[in-house]
Design a protein that fits this description.
By secondary structure, the chain is α/β, with parallel strands linked by helices. The chain has helices at 14-27, 40-49, 60-64, 81-90, 105-118, 132-142, 172-175, 179-194, 309-323, 335-350, and strands at 5-10, 30-36, 53-57, 71-74, 94-98, 122-125, 149-157, 200-208, 240-247, 251-257, 266-273, 276-281, 286-291, 297-300, 354-355. The strands form 2 sheets. Strands 14-13-12-11-7-10-9-8-15 form a 9-stranded mixed β-sheet, covered by helices on one side. The protein has a 6-stranded parallel β-sheet with strand order 3-2-1-4-5-6, with helices on both faces.
């Protein structure tokens, strides 16, 4: 059996608990030599639940100084991605950093350059590139099943779903933004991927912070990260975003909302081609439509299983730390998504179109 991967995990919050640690357990070939969190009890809880966690620390530099650690997972709030990742790369570690790369494009470029300078991998946690439905749609587009995809419509809208109101999620200095950087990055990145590495030409965008602007009056059915809520804190990010993107391959229009006064979840992406079209239900299956022999619209059913894409993502990254392969979530492949986020936020702030 191959030697187990020896890693450190920095940040033991929700994405660690809900995604990566269950993935490590399923893979069965991972040693977490260090679980690190500045809030020690979070790391201690992780250690109590996973027998492959060896040590708990609050200072991540302890892990960076250990020559046995091959790779570091950076699973902290967005604002901390840059400093920790740069420190880890300079310490000679491969890095898996959760999305977004960091809070803006300029710093994202610096991170990518540092990875090259150090000769280390930097992969970004845009896990949908490993979702089976996304993989199939990318392959279908590459093989011409859609003909030419000329437009994509994207909806990531929910009802009264602002996470941790007043805390880190809604504080721009820590998160970098609201629903766009939290949910939208997943949707827009997989669109660019399926389109075949589309490059941005122009963007226009509007952002709104309306439903939760009076935090004490905000009513909700449930709240993600409610334990971080602080109604005396800050809410300076968008809860609704709308925009239009022109790329060198197709146009993209989108609407996203953490909170809207419509009691529906609308999480889907439509790919419109001149020979076929598909609606992808986010995280699930897709429906494909094409023209039949008599010119009628036909629905074609695809039967397949959807493996856990977090496991597939972690497996690919860990394998790459030994082979040196640049996988589809290697930082260079995600930089266009980071550039897109920055441009959309600039457009919303300036209330004008941004051109490249």
């Amino acid at each position: 059996m191959d030697k187990k991967y020896c890693i450190a995990v920095i940040g033991c919050g929700r994405i660690a608990n809900n995604a990566h640690f269950p993935s490590f357990r399923a893979l069965g070939n991972v040693r977490v030599k260090y679980a690190c969190d500045i809030i020690e009890h979070k790391a201690l809880k992780i250690k109590s639940e996973y027998d492959f966690v060896e040590n708990v620390i609050t200072d991540y530099k302890v892990a960076l100084s250990d020559p046995e650690v091959e790779a570091v997972y950076v699973l902290t709030p967005n604002y901390a991605h840059y400093v920790i990742t740069m420190d880890a790369l300079k310490a000679g570690k491969h890095v898996f950093c959760e999305k977004p790369i960091t809070v803006n494009y300029k710093l994202s470029l610096e991170m990518a350059k540092e990875a090259k300078r150090q000769g280390k991998l930097l992969n970004i946690g845009v896990c949908n590139r490993y979702n089976k439905s996304v993989e199939l749609l990318e392959e279908m587009n590459r093989k011409g099943k859609f003909g030419t995809i000329y437009h994509v419509y994207c909806s990531f809208r929910s009802y009264r779903c602002i996470p941790g109101l007043g805390g880190a999620f809604t504080t721009k200095a820590q998160s970098g933004g609201g629903v766009l950087i939290d949910w939208g990055i997943h949707f827009l990145d997989l669109i660019l991927y399926i389109l075949g590495g589309a490059k941005i030409k122009t963007v226009t965008c509007d952002a709104y912070n309306e439903i939760g602007k009076n935090m004490t009056d905000y009513k909700y059915l449930d709240m993600w990260a409610e334990d971080t809520k602080d109604l005396k804190g800050t809410n300076d990010v968008e809860d609704l975003i709308s925009g239009y993107i022109r790329t060198d391959k197709a146009s993209v229009s989108f609407n996203g909302a953490w909170a809207q006064n419509i009691g529906e979840d609308e999480m889907f992406i439509d790919f419109l081609g001149d020979k076929g079209g598909a609606r992808l239900k986010y995280g699930g299956m897709f429906e494909f439509y094409t023209t039949g022999d008599e010119g009628e619209l036909q629905k074609i059913e695809y039967k397949y299983n959807i493996p856990n894409h977090m496991e597939m993502e972690d497996k690919a990254f860990l394998k790459a730390t030994r082979t040196g392969e640049h996988t589809k979530t290697y930082v260079d492949n995600i930089l266009e998504s980071a550039r897109l986020l920055d441009a959309l936020y600039q457009s919303a702030e300036k209330r004008e179109e941004i051109k490249f």
